[in-house]
Amino acid sequence: MRTLSILGLDAAERPRLNATSIRQLAKLGTVVRWPGLLFAAVLSLAVPPKFPLGLALLLIWVAVYNAWGMIAISRADDASILRVGRALTLIDTVSYFLVLFVFGGVGASTSIYAAYILLIVWMVAYDGAEGAMLCVAIFVLGMLALHGALGAVFHEDFATREVLLWSLIMVVAAAILAAYDRIVVGGVLPRAGALGADGSSLPSAPGSSGGGAQTSVSSAIPAVRLSRREQEVLQLVSEGYSNSMIAGRLHLSENTIKTYVENLLSRLNARNRAEAVAAASRQNLI
To answer: 218-282: which CATH topology?
Structure first.
């Protein structure tokens, strides 16, 4: 199982996301941050911050790194776009707890805490269950540091109940999102004899039996779980349909079909449609 580094910048790219999808996801993040800034500014009118100057500086900081993110995303190549998108989201988590600090905690607006679920959504999209675990770990540590700082600076009592309650909520939310990502959206299921990056069969784990019966059972289990629409597109690709023909057949736009095909190539570790069909056939997907 892949593990994330402390900053989460060195994890391998997930097979289910290609560079185009990651770039679109990162761009969406830069769009969402602008209304987030507006929300924080409006909230300061209803719930006066305990550190007004800190809030002003924080809003400027978020605006600056979001503008940098927009530029970095447009300039990043396919090999580095995942690191850029993930780095922006992780910076968001730090900025999130700074916002909580200048407001003195949640106070009357629990929507600030609920907004953290959006960060979990992004990390799950980038890194699946590992992204969810990283985001939850940051939240728990951030909550401990936040209330410790509130006690040291504003002499507030440590809100143990609040920390436990919201930590539990984030654990449940992360588990649901990770399960949805794995089951509905699709992910890679580990098994013996899975395919390598070049489409060849990887060796089984040491000590495993090489009997024919076990091989037959393993080969019957697909290494990649596809959605119903992906299955339809893959079937038509295997029958020699072009993107425009598939679009007409499924009543979708050609750009949508192009995205489906790119995702299939990435998830099947294929360089072209022929390799994708061959890999899918070996995994009994078609």
So the answer is: Arc Repressor Mutant, subunit A (1.10.10)
